[in-house]
Amino acid sequence: MNTPVAKADSYTFCRRIARKRARNFYYSFLLLSREQRDAMCAIYAFMRYCDDISEGEGASREAIERWRSDLNRALQGDYAGNPLWPAFHDTVERYRIPHNYFQEMIDGVSSDLEPRQIQTFDELYRYCYQVASVVGLTIIHIFGFDSPDALVLAEKCGIAFQITNIIRDVREDSENHRTYVPAEDISRFNADLSKRDENFLSLMRFEAARAQFYYSESLPLIALVHESSRRSLWALIEIYRRLLARIEESNFDVLSKRIRLSALKKLQIVLQAQFKSMR
């Protein structure tokens, strides 16, 4: 018989996961109220579980579907002893987050179970929507918003974030037999993703420009979330934008190393956000 986990203990569990593993997200959480920060940690812990189930040694469709069943039960208040669920369910109910976002997340990570080559940008957009845009759509419910335009912009912001991740992780993804850079783009530039020559650099510049387009398109989102949350959202976007800028400054040296922003740089962005006018 599973021992019930108290809600306070569940939030403590989620905070621990976020502090340990949310390399970019957690810094922006620091600018939120305690209640919002806890909610972000609960959502992040769910996303982390999704990724781990799809990428671990026991990754399988059966494991994904068990996780989906656990999610459906948890959303009805049946937590099955998992310390994640009480905080997650409380967050979803408190902020009225649509349940279909979490189903989309699971669909997205389940698509990574087998080797794959994205063929077109439309296919890439759908993948980015499932693994990143729905995250943005989820967390703006915690940030708070009134205009439905915020939903459209949160979707675009997620696309920008995920394309940034894809550029950064080209080598790692290739080693795992996954290619998210569309085949139509690779063919257009006659590029080899294992060879950092001029064709590769032209392809990377093209994908970076695509990400920059979505960053620019989504920028008005900051003004659409509730004022108390704007600094956190600005910091989150700025962390990803500066990561992309650092990749560009390295001339896309992504095959020899994984480019990151230092913890100090992220803290500097958080401090900048704290004193930045958001009106």
- Helical proportion? 55-70%
Figure out the total of helices: 14
- First-to-last CA distance: 52 Å
Query: Could you say which structural class the secondary elements and strand pairing correspond to?
Result: mainly alpha
Shape: globular
What are the low-pLDDT stretches, counting only 5+ consecutive residues below 50?
A: none
Task: Provide the spatial order of strands within the biggest beta sheet.
Answer: 1-2
User: What is the averaged pLDDT score?
Assistant: 92
> The biggest beta sheet, please?
2 strands, parallel
Beta-strand portion reads under 5%
* Overall strand count: 2
Taking all Cα atoms into account, the compactness measure Rg is: 19 Å
Report the order of strands and helices: HHHHHHEHHHEHHHHH
If you had to describe this structure to a student in words, what would you say it looks like?
This protein has 279 residues and is mainly α. It is built from 14 helices and 2 strands, in the order H-H-H-H-H-H-E-H-H-H-E-H-H-H-H-H. The protein is globular, with a radius of gyration of 19 Å. The termini are far apart. The model has no long low-confidence stretch (mean pLDDT 92).
